[in-house]
Specification:
It comes from Steinernema carpocapsae. The chain has a single domain, classed as Rhodopsin 7-helix transmembrane proteins (Rhopdopsin 7-helix transmembrane proteins), CATH 1.20.1070.10. It is 80% helix and 1% strand. It has ten helices and two strands, in the order H-H-H-H-H-H-E-E-H-H-H-H. It has a two-stranded antiparallel ribbon. Helix 1 runs antiparallel to helix 3, helix 4 packs antiparallel against helix 5 and helix 5 packs antiparallel against helix 6. It is globular.
Length: 297
């Protein structure tokens, strides 16, 4: 195994065996606590998390395949096809999250069944995309000496499948952009007109999460589909790292950064350290006073 292969293995082990379980723990919290399950936005975030975690087996089995030198029971091949399918489903699901933010923060009134119908259609589209990769008409493989998977464009429907996925993702990004643009304009208007935004503190964290996810999705999709990728290790490694970071590392980092409970714990720890420091300084000052008094006598 050469140096580049070793770097790729370490990278995949970190994402497949370290970051994915941490992310899974956050998704479990969203699903297990009634407070989160009662809000549609958190249910959508949890669903996106489950979908993104389906990337983890592919990343993990890539490391196994590179270490062994072969693909046992075609585990790497199957799970990487799943990875490809997930990459086409996540941006449309993020659009549904953007719709939820638009509905809640702008006070729109329409049936919640619209979001559920969209989610069902998106998941169905993902299953169809994934299934097509097992047919003789399209394929997604992982070359032994490459850090990223590649479509087999020699097959008749691969081009159609990838172009369809790209169009769906771009439409989802554009629609999400207009949703967040509308939300921003509405918030500015509400701040100017009313002077106070209803439930702003409660809604701010999930809006921040959604907007950052949108920006990262946009970067990854444009980088993979619109920028020519040279067949060199570090170019391909950058794209592979961007996808895996966007899927498995960024979400738990964002959750830690914006979660109110974590913020409260951070404040408590900060206050605790300040209290300990004050007591330590007070004891030190008292000790110095006693020593000085002893020397004086």
């Amino acid at each position: 195994m050469d140096k580049n292969q070793a770097i790729s293995v370490v990278f995949n082990i970190c994402f497949g065996f370290l970051f994915a379980p941490i992310y899974g723990r956050f998704v479990y919290i969203l699903l297990s606590r009634q407070h989160y399950r009662n809000h549609e936005c958190y249910r959508i975030v949890a669903l996106i998390g489950i979908v993104q975690l389906l990337c983890a087996p592919g990343v993990a089995f890539v490391a196994l395949e590179k270490c062994l030198g072969y693909d046992p029971w075609s585990l790497c091949g199957v799970t990487m096809k799943l990875y490809a399918g997930v990459s086409k489903v996540e941006p449309p699901l993020s659009f549904v999250l953007a719709l939820n933010r638009l509905k809640v923060m702008c006070g729109l009134r329409y049936s919640a069944g619209i979001h559920k119908t969209l989610i069902v259609l998106i998941l169905l589209y993902g299953f169809v995309f994934f299934g097509f990769l097992f047919t003789p008409f399209a394929d997604y493989t992982f070359p032994p000496n490459s850090p990223m998977g590649k479509y087999n464009f020699s097959l008749p429907l691969t081009q159609v499948l990838t172009q369809t996925g790209f169009v769906v993702n771009i439409i989802s990004l554009i629609a999400s952009f207009f949703c967040y643009l509308t939300v921003c304009v509405y918030l500015l208007w509400a701040q100017w007109k009313i002077g106070k935004i209803k439930n702003w503190k409660a809604e701010r964290s999930i809006l921040t999460y959604a907007v950052v996810r949108f920006l990262c999705d946009m970067f990854v999709i444009i980088a993979y589909n619109c920028i020519p990728i040279r067949e060199e290790f570090w170019d391909e490694m950058f794209i592979a790292a961007s996808y895996s970071t966007n899927m498995l590392l960024l979400p738990p980092v964002l959750y830690l950064a914006i979660n109110e409970w974590v913020e409260r714990m951070r404040i408590r720890l900060r206050c605790g350290f300040r209290s300990i420091r004050s007591e330590f300084l007070a004891c030190g000052t008292a000790g110095i006073g006693r020593i000085s008094g002893g020397e004086g006598t």
